[in-house]
Amino acid sequence: MRNEFKARLAMDQEAVEARLKTLFLDDGCGTLNESMRYSLLAGGKRIRPVLTLAFSRLFGGENEPALTAGISIEMVHTYSLIHDDLPCMDNDDLRRGKPTSHMVFGEAGAVLAGDALLTEAFSNLCRVNLPPERLIRLVEVLSECSGAEGMVGGQILDLDAELVPPDKDGVEKIQNLKTGALIRAACQMGVICADGDREAMHAAAQFAEHLGRAFQIRDDLLDAEGSEEKIGKKTGMDGNKTTFLSLFGAQWCRDEILRRTQSACFSIRSYSGSDYLCELAETLAVRDH
Question: What percent of the chain has pLDDT above 70?
Answer without folding.
Answer: 95
